[in-house]
Amino acid sequence: MWKYVFTIACLHNLVSVYCQTGSCRDGYTRHANSCYRFHHVELSWPESVTFCKATGSYLVRVETEAEHDFLKLKAKEMLGTYPLYSFWIGATDAVENGKWLWADILTRLVYTKWALGQPNNSPGEDCAGLYYQGGYDFGDWVCRTLLHPICEADLQVQGETVIG
Ligand SMILES: [Ca+2]
Ligand SMILES: [Ca+2]
């Protein structure tokens, strides 16, 4: 039973038979098998992609409801700390309008939860984020808008435990 629960928990963030034991670097918060950092800096979406990459991470991929719920909770904790309240995520439809991809792996979004009225693509809003006014569900913006990046990094693995 526990083995099953543990496996499902791990699969939320990693399509693998492994559940990792590991840690996050300083400044990052762990959820499932990933580490996250909300940044104060205000950047455009392309700058945010570069920023995360430069710190050994990627602009966050919100791939499950559990991951989204975790990020929403964290974002709400940040209220008052940030001058702007919306955050960039790693999705763009710049290649083909309406076809949203995770930019770093060029994979179509499977999980999505757009805020009411989003994406409104008005006009040329090709980059996605967590929309403060929409309860941190997804919204789309013109990519040069200045928002805060959330970077996601893989766990620093010290050892791996095979489940099952
Ligand atoms: Ca993720
Ligand atoms: Ca929009």
Outline of the structure:
By secondary structure, the chain is α+β, with helices and mostly antiparallel strands. It has helices at 2-11, 45-54, 65-78, and strands spanning 18-23, 29-31, 34-38, 58-59, 87-92, 101-102, 107-108, 127-131, 137-141, 148-154, 156-162. It is built from three helices and eleven strands, in the order αβββαβαβββββββ.
Task: Please provide a written account of the structure.
With 164 residues, the protein is α+β, with helices and mostly antiparallel strands. 21% of the residues lie in helices and 30% in strands. The chain is globular.
| Biggest sheet architecture | 9 strands, mixed
Strand runs, count: 11
Unreliable segments of 5+ consecutive residues: 1-8, 13-17
Q: Specify the overall morphology.
A: globular
**Helical segment tally?**
3
State the helicity in percent bands.
10-25%
| Rg of Cα set | 16 Å
Task: Output the helix-strand order.
Answer: HEEEHEHEEEEEEE
Heterogens: calcium ion
Distance between the termini: 11 Å
Structural class: alpha+beta
The portion of residues forming beta strands comes to 25-35%
Mean pLDDT: 87
Task: For the structure shown, list the relevant keywords.
164 residues; alpha+beta; nine-stranded mixed beta sheet; 3 helices; 11 strands; binds calcium ion
Topology, please?
Blueprint (H helix, E strand, L loop, with lengths): L1 H10 L6 E6 L5 E3 L2 E5 L6 H10 L3 E2 L5 H14 L8 E6 L8 E2 L4 E2 L18 E5 L5 E5 L6 E7 L1 E7 L2
Parallel strand pairs: 5-10
Antiparallel strand pairs: 1-11, 2-3, 3-10, 4-10, 5-6, 5-8, 6-7, 8-9
